[in-house]
Write a structure and sequence with these properties.
Layout (H helix, E strand, L loop, with lengths): L8 H23 L5 H20 L3 H18 L7 H24 L7 H11 L12 H12 L3 H6 L13 H6 L3 H45 L4 H40 L3 E3 L1 H4 L2 H12 L3 E6 L4 E3 H22 L3 H6 L6 E10 L2 E8 L6 H10 L5 H4 L4 H6 L22 H10 L3 E7 L3 E9 L5 E8 L2 E6 L3 E8 L4 E3 L2 E6 L2 E7 H5 L11 E9 L2 E7 L1 E2 L3 E3 L14 E6 L5 E5 L1 H11 L17 E5 L3 H13 L3 E5 L2 H10 L4 E4 L8 H9 L9 E5 L4 H10 L3 E4 L5 H13 L6
Parallel strand pairs: 2-4, 9-19, 13-15, 20-21, 20-22, 22-23, 23-24
Antiparallel strand pairs: 1-3, 4-5, 5-7, 6-7, 8-9, 8-16, 8-17, 10-14, 11-12, 12-13, 14-15, 18-19
Amino acid sequence: MAIDKSKYINKYIDEGLENTSLVETLVFDIREGISVEDDLATLLRALHTLKGTSRMLEFKRIEELSHSLESVFAAFREQRIGLSENAVKLVLASLDMLKSGFSVIQKNNNDLIEIQEYSKNLSLLAANEEFTVPENEDKKEKKSNKVSQEKQSVFEKNENKTGKPQKETKKDIKSESIRISLDKINGIIKSIASLQSLEISAKSISQDSAALNAMIKEYSRILRDYNRNDLGLASNLRKLERLSEKLNSSLKNYTVDAGNSARRAYDSVISLRTLPLSTVFDSYPRFVYELSQETGKKVHFTVEGKENEIDKNIIEGLSDVFMHMVRNAVDHGIETPKQRIAAGKEETGKLSIVCSRESGSMKIVISDDGRGLDHEKIREKAIKDGFIAEAAASSLSREELTNLIFQSGFSTSGKISNISGRGIGMDVVRDSVEALKGSIVVDSTFGKGTIFTIMVPLSIASLMGFPVECSGLKFIIPANFVDTILLINREDIITVVDRPEIRYNDRIIKLYFLSHILQINRETAFQSDIIFAVIIRSIDEIAAIAVDNIDSMKSVILNTMPSFFVNLPVFSGIVLNEDYEMASVLHMPTVLKIAKRIKTIDMKKRSIEFERLRKSILVVDDSRPTREIESDILKAEGYLVDTAADGAQALRAVKTKHYDLVCTDLNMPVMDGFLLIENIKKNDELAKIPVIVISSKADEEDKKRALDLGASGYIIKNSFNNHNLLEAVNELIEGGNNER
């Protein structure tokens, strides 16, 4: 049966764009002379994954072009070729052709693009032979409109004095696939927040019900003592007690369920507002490269910390700011090679963006080693344009002169260009940053360069969090990290060599005491018989944090961190309650990091086995579309299926849960399929689990190695179909019960 492509196309395109973006980023790292030895394996794996998935979905042209690119970088890794400027242009043009292919696939469900010239020249490059860069038909148009269309910003709109409408920018495929109206998200968040009142009401009713139940029991005791012979009265009282207990139990369950549902819904929706800074900066190496080509300058550009996540509102508010500042740095800041050599500098200028998280704020530093600000020129220009009186100008400090660049309409540049307009816009930069409750500081030395430091909060929205108490102190745990809340008895704690653990959702998880983590009254941690356990989920980690008391989820407003908290990464902010009492907002990733240093729990011997009604299979592949294709086929046959993105995830999974079969790819990050098979087969408890390899690797040597390590079957993706997969799976699973 043929695979229905339509189910997987969107995710295939998302993954394809992600992989091409990765390749593009590494191309610029190579061009800049950055060591990419470790990253080359990731790059080749990305191209290999794209090739394999394209083969499964029968997109032959994308497969061929991916293979050609893979050959180029394989030759580069083996030092058979170098990447000259023309080679970089050929690779970038080929990546653009891949993106065009994804666009065609999205529209027409096929990859009918002309790739012959690109594949041919890539093959010549891989063989270290003479090649050419194919001319794209709309290359010139793209080049002339690149900045004004793809990177259009509020600054350019302000600078468009002609009154003529600009051409509409071609929409980005990936943006279309993830675009969600923020108004809708905010509406949902408000609706979820309103559920809090229902939870609080239910909690209040539950408390009233509990009080009523206690009163009924007390009255029953009194009446029974008063009239022991009235059997009818005694019977009715017992019925009333049972009814009250049932009502009380139902209300308690409803309160817990309503609260948990609201929290899970809020967690899911609020995550849509958070995006990594890479969504802005991943395109910048290409952007800076094209700006440098257009201005005739040489620029070494780097970005650090782009994996940091921040509220979508802030990213949108800052994207124009970053774009404008980078344009200015290339156009006005960095000198031409000839000017730099004359000034005693290297001919290649340096431009960098460094992002880091600092106690509840995001710090973005944009710096260049260009000409810097000429403070005397600023003074003269300010006098000439009437910004300051001549008498007062001489007394202005260097800092005061620097801040004049943020005055509306102030500019020391007499040059008008297509790149940075008329030199205006720093006032808009300042206003945009301050509108986000942030700040911007400039440090510039004439002839040496300029450093802009921007500080913005991680979120400008209200924070949903759980007020907790620990040793008499108040803290806030952000709701987006909370999976649920448990009330556990002391005897429910499993202690192994003084390392506490609890059971949660059919698994064993670590239990940490907040008093231990924060080192406050640690001796009180085990004194209570009842413990509030907050189940924390952070990325791929899950753990329980024990606190003394916890209140229902609340919406709180973040306040600026006091100066004495600046160097405490465990806190991300503070809030004030209605009584103006301060509570510190905990930064949960740091809390967990500290907790892991206190205790390390050996999970190996404490996996829990439960009765299995159906056979379970683990599918392991670093390509999401491939995982879903295989998973859907197996689920349709009635199997229970879990997935893992690499061998390390898979190994953790098989050690904590029973599986009757593992289907794995070979070429994966972190831990490849060969090492996964080896680890499974050398473990006495896991060795009986059969493993099927499903890989693009068709070499007999790879097949022999996998089978020698203990694989029970080997399917090449080129010949992959429903029938041969199910045939192999059914044969292996029904061949033995694989109990351990």
